[in-house]
Amino acid sequence: MSFDVDRIRKDFPILARTVREDRPLIYLDSANTSQKPQQVIDAIDDYYSRHNANIHRATHQLGEEATEAYEGARIKVAGFIGTRDESEVIFTKNISEGLNLVAYAMGNAATSGPEAERFRVGPGDEIVITEMEHHSNIVPWQLLAQRTGATLRWFGVTDDGRLDLDRIDELITERTKVVALAHQSNVLGTINPVREVAAKAHAVGALVVVDGAQAVPHMPVDVQDLGVDFYGFTAHKLCGPTGIGVLWGRRELLEILPPFLGGGEMIETVWMERSTYAPPPHRFEAGTMPIAEAAGLAAAVDYVTGVGLDAVRAHERDLLGHALEAMAEVPGLRVLGPLETANRGTAISFTLDGGDGREIHPHDVSQVLDADGVAVRAGHHCARPLHRRFGINASTRASLYLYNTRDEIDALVDGIRQAQKFFGAA
Amino acid sequence: MQLQSMYQEIILDHYRNPHHKGLREPYDAEVHHVNPTCGDEVTLRVRLDGADDGARITDVSYDAMGCSISQASASVLTDLMIGKTVKEAMAISEEFRSLMQSRGELQPDEEVLEDAVAFAGVSKYPARIKCALLSWMAWKDATARALGHGDGDER
Residue B153 pLDDT more than 90? Predict the structure, then answer.
């Protein structure tokens, strides 16, 4: 099947609009959130127009249809990430909630029964993360360490933006209880050797939690094959709606993991003094869930599966190669992260010198680009420690997806040169 | 064209050649403010002569990392505030804040705001208003502390 970017662009109505004085939109901010194809918009519209009801509790026809839409999405997601058991798929608000779910449930293990022993952390135990994490895979672990007295440790990052594995034997030891890392960096684009780290962690009995927010939209992911314990992602970066994310966990772990949020539909029986809880996944889905969003997520999974994630990846690799080459020709432009396409995704963060030795601030770069209709992100992209590691406070990030073109990358590079002219020494 | 409406020549001048930059002694209060969304930072010191509203601002010094808007805004701030009484300076600060919240609708008073009128164009860009206000909020906080009012607000 051939990949036809023009045909794909027609599926995304927003790409036809203009911005800032009638300029065509050039959307290079998909690592932030992706645009949505008509198929996803229609699925949400159809759900609200025809099937809307609450799930699992309504006995009428609409209730059945809504439940089917929601649980059907769970089955679809399970197949999409390589598990046959849909009860391993928990719906969350977003990836941040998924990671918090694991960290808070582990904290709750301290006051749970002996079955939760596996998740207990305390003084002397270690939690290992990495310096390239998004804040959502740092702060929940800091909070867990603070609550339990465990110690937080982390992998460093090499100058070329790879995970520094040299110290892996010092970092992952018999004291390690959990290792949490990103599958793909939202700043550097680096694809981490998750399988290798997971094997090491499992050898010492540690749990492995993976933030897959930047990986799942761009490559086929098989959670079984990766050999991890928990894997999270979010729909809105995957052509789906905001408001819903996924946390996958191994069945045998979810069965003994204490609850995180308490409320309706996560219980088995409630007395005034205490409660017992529903089996997974419902134990982790308190209250009315994002049902229309689940229908939208299912449509998004169908959409990217229909296009083919291998084809998406090949297209993105072509764009990435072109972008890295074109950006290398801009004097004073420094790309953070790997300069080759191998094991690298399409988030391209960079700093820019004005030719006078003074850096042009990412806010100013992005403002010039915005005036040309080019949407990028400026700031620390919720990865402040990583920016500090490279001695900077902020960067400009262009991030690509299946609907981007080589022409759009050329427009980006033109805009970058304009910014240099506007703010630089000239 | 749009870019020029935001980046007026006055702003670019202050950005390229900032006034009163650098941290100086003596000072009565020092604060550090950040813009959490982009990581911009300013450390700002205030030196006052006198007490309460009537105190005269004898120095405002700063060290800042950030975009052209936030750098230029700090430079303009020091030009406006140094030599004024706290009461006069607070009035200017309020005027500037109103301008920045006006979405480009307010005709700024050049008598009061001097070079700061150039930021009227910035107020049309919600994402950049915080950049312009960063050092002004830091100044207000530092002044409150220097007057012994403890923690200023607006952090």
Answer: no
| Domains present along chain A, CATH in parentheses | 5-29+308-422 (3.90.1150.10), 52-305 (3.40.640.10)
| CB neighbours of residue A124 within 10 Å | 10
* pLDDT tens, residue by residue, A310-323: 999 999 999 999 99
Helix intervals (H) in A55-187: 61-80, 95-108, 139-148, 168-171
Q: Which two tokens stand for residue B65?
A: 């990392």
Contacts of B66 in chain A (CB under 8 A): 361, 363
Q: Which of residues 361-390 of A touch B (CB under 8 A)?
A: 361-364, 367-368, 371, 378-380, 384, 387
For B89-104, the DSSP string reads: HHHHHHHHHHHHTTTT
Any idea which residue has 């918009």 for tokens? A41
What secondary structure letter does DSSP report for B112?
H
Instruction: List active site positions of A.
Output: 382
Residue B62, both tokens: 């700063």
Chain A residue whose CA is closest to B37: A379
Among A382, A386, A384, residue whose Cα is nearest residue A337: A386
Q: Which residue of B has its CA nearest to A354?
A: B16
List pLDDT tens digits, range B5-21.
889 999 999 999 999 99
A5, A405 contact by CB (below 8 A): yes
Tell me the whole-structure pTM to 2 decimals: 0.93
- Nearest-angstrom CA–CA distance, A9 and A35: 10
Contact between A247 and A77 (Cβ < 8 Å): no
Residues in B touching A378 (Cβ below 8 Å)? 38
Q: Do residues B112 and B124 touch, judged by C-beta distance below 8 A?
A: no
Q: Which of A125, A127, A195, A188 is nearest to A158 (CA)?
A: A188
